[in-house]
Amino acid sequence: MEGNNISPFQGSIKSLLLPPPSPTRELRAALAEDERRQREGEAKLRALRQGVPDYGQFRSGIVLASHLKPLDKKDRLGQRRNVLWNPCAAPAEASPAHAVEIPQELDQLPGTAAEFHRDWRRCLKSGTEKYRFLLELGGEALGRIFQADVGFGLLGEFLTVLAENIHPGDRAAVLQILQSLAGTKRFGLNVALLSQAEKESSQDLFRKLQSCDCQLLASRQPASCETGGKPSVTPTWKRKSKRRGQWWS
Fold first, then answer.
1. Cα 214 → chain centroid
2. Its domain of life (predicted)?
3. pLDDT tens per residue across span 17-37
4. What is residue 187's predicted lDDT score, i.e. its pLDDT?
5. Predicted model pTM
6. DSSP string covering 136-181, please?
7. 85 and 102 Cβ atoms separated by less than 8 Å
8. Can you say how many angstroms the Cα of residue 33 is from the centroid of all Cα atoms in its chain?
9. Are 44 and 21 in contact (CB under 8 A)?
């Protein structure tokens, strides 16, 4: 009789010790839906901060790709290879472009601001790689990618990288990049947010460009460079920048 009275308690204890039943299919689907909505909500907030220009780019480039995660090192297949980037047709006397080791992820250049930020932060480690990357993209593509806004901090990084790595043969490509950046929205705000070190880098970059101008115009206007004076021709990017404030001085 006592055994019959204890057995219900034994069953209750066993039920407490057993693991909880696995979630049903409906519950798993509901959890997955909640996670998807949360990812897409965060992606929409990022898109608002980045100023994505149109709905198609917003939906295909950010929202629908919100579930993607960066590859681990073990997931990257294949060997790294050396590729010669040739961003512009350099003069015959200019030194040839340097061979730069490009990560496999950069076989395809970015087409959106989100893709650019991903490659710029994760794949490019040295200033030389970033410099060749900017030249490979070119001013036209950079102006299209950042037509809404260059983004906080990026303008200063661009100026620093260009100043530290510019070569005389890349003068035309660098000028095109500067001209395109000067035409982006909220350019004046980004200029105002430059740090003192970034402003000094911009001054260094403009001095080097003026030196290239002097070398180019020496045969046509030798008097303009005799005493270290500035060239008589004002570049387009500088005329645009003057209207927004003399941020290189």
1. 32
2. Eukaryota
3. 555 556 677 788 888 888 888
4. 85
5. 0.50
6. HHHHHHHHHHTSS---TTHHHHHHHHHHHH--GGGHHHHHHHHHHH
7. yes
8. 31
9. no
Phi, psi (rounded to 5 degrees) for 124: -100, 115
Q: What secondary structure does DSSP assign to the chain, as a single string?
A: -HHHHHHHHHHHHHHHHSPPPPPPHHHHHHHHHHHHHHHHHHHHHHHHHHT--SHHHHIIIIITTTT--PPPGGG--S--EEEE---S---TTSPPPPEEEEPGGGGS---SHHHHHHHHHHT--SHHHHHHHHHHHHHHHHHHHTSS---TTHHHHHHHHHHHH--GGGHHHHHHHHHHHHTSTTHHHHHHT--HHHHHHHHHHHHHHHHHHHHHHTTT-GGGGTTSPPPSSPPHHHHHHHHH--TT-
- Integer Cα distance of 135 and 210 in angstroms: 19
Q: Which two tokens stand for residue 74?
A: 């073990």
Q: What is the pLDDT of residues 149-191, one digit of tens each?
A: 887 788 899 999 999 999 888 999 999 999 999 988 888 888 8
Cα–Cα distance, 210 to 52 (Å, whole number): 35
Amino acid letter, 95? S
The CA-based angle 187-115-127, given to 5 degrees, is 70
